[in-house]
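Weekly modeling sync, notes
Attendees: S.R. (lead), two postdocs, one rotation student

Agenda item 3: backlog of single-chain predictions. S.R. asked that every request posted to the team notebook include the full sequence so nobody has to chase files. The rotation student volunteered to paste the first one in as an example of the format we agreed on. Action items at the bottom.

Example entry:
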Amino acid sequence: MSDEVEPTEAELRQVLAHRTGGATALQQGLALAGRTAAIGLPAALVYGIVSGGVGYAVQQLALDALETDPGRLQSAAQIFLIAGGLAAVYTVIQFTKRKTASRASWAPALFTAPLLMGWGSLWLMSSTQASQMRPMAVQLMVIGWSLLWMSFGGAAVAIAWLRSGRGRSSASPSTPRACSTRCAAARSRSPGPTVRASTPSPSACSCCSPASSTRYSSRSPT
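Predicted structure, as returned to the notebook:
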């Protein structure tokens, strides 16, 4: 059994002494975004091109579907409804075990809303009683695609940009003194049965040295 090492009062005071205000955080964020623009901007550009291009194609397909035989549209709507229902059931099951479920296991749940929107769009297209709402069906299909692409494509772009920013931040020479103080305090502690460092080198703390991935952890005696 393991638990995190509790910070000392001196460490907490050091962190509070160097707390960042809103204006400073915005300034640092803009500076970090500029340093990582080589990765973030191309990824965002690709995301925008795919979002706009495929979104336009989905809109054209939805407009063409307005002239399709209602029977075929109803069959397609049933497929979307069944798939969306299964995704909704999966989402409910995932919610019941949310404390133990992994992040990747939530991926099928992200299809629930787009599939149900696709079903609503096809149902409006095939319905004769709701013919005045058929233009809304096109927008429902486009919104469904946007939700799907934001859930996966947008998340991929955000993760890529954030990871590049974390690497540049850790490699920055202006590492906060609070981090250095915390690492120095951790290294100064005696490696007893509960707190143990894998190496006594000065670069043992990952936040002080980007080349080191060593972390201090609390472990039970072996």
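Discussion: group reviewed the output briefly. The CA atoms of residues 39 and 161 lie 7 Å apart.
Action items: rotation student to repeat for the remaining queue; S.R. to check formatting next week.
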